[in-house]
Task: structure prediction
Amino acid sequence: MTTKIAIIQMDIVFGSPEENRKVAQEKIKEAATQGSEVILLPELWTTGYDLSRFEEIAETLEGPTHQLLISLAKELKVIIAGSIAEEENGKFYNTFVAYNAEGDRLLNYRKAHLFRLMNEEKYLESGNQKGNFNLGDVPVAGVICYDIRFPEWMRTHMLDGSRGLFVVAEWPKPRVEHWRNLLISRAIENQCFVIACNRVGADQNNEFGGHSIVVDPWGSVLAEGGFDEEIVYADVDFSAVEAIREQIPIFQDRRPDLYE
Result:
């Protein structure tokens, strides 16, 4: 049984949550009309990397962005995910959230690896918890951008049997080949589906590379975007993972006693 995935590859208005929510709402509804069951938004899709203004524009996990996502998920009967600027007790996080079709929060994963090239460590706190959650009865995980450069962190998420890795990003255009190659590698080495959403457009400091992508456990690209705004669709059969892991049993053949 396949799951229809929609990846919203959008531009982001720098530091303008209200405007970004308006655009995202339109695109979420468009994706839902195409029968999408899971809809993925980019990293920091409400604010972009306007980190110095997070005191003004970040929000709690009860804020207006979350109320919108809960409302849309329930109305459209879809799962919606993406990362937002979170504030808690005066501290700020880059947080991946996901809501199911009943409006329940499935995940709030705070980015573990902060990206110095975009000054995250100056403004944000790093997370200390994994991003595992369930799509119905399918175990999956959600991570954010720079996290994918740490294969040991990705493997940690896969050791519970997760069949899919959802990635949200603002990955710069000059390194878009790194993005593609890393995601394909993560799919092959973990024998899982990788579903990854990257923004397009530019802010004051960076141009972003798009190329949102869906990769199967063999490393084959099922769908991929370009450099412009679009919605990327793919049908994913998570049940295929089990047979592939039996065919080449890398999880059974691991030697964690050697990996210290």
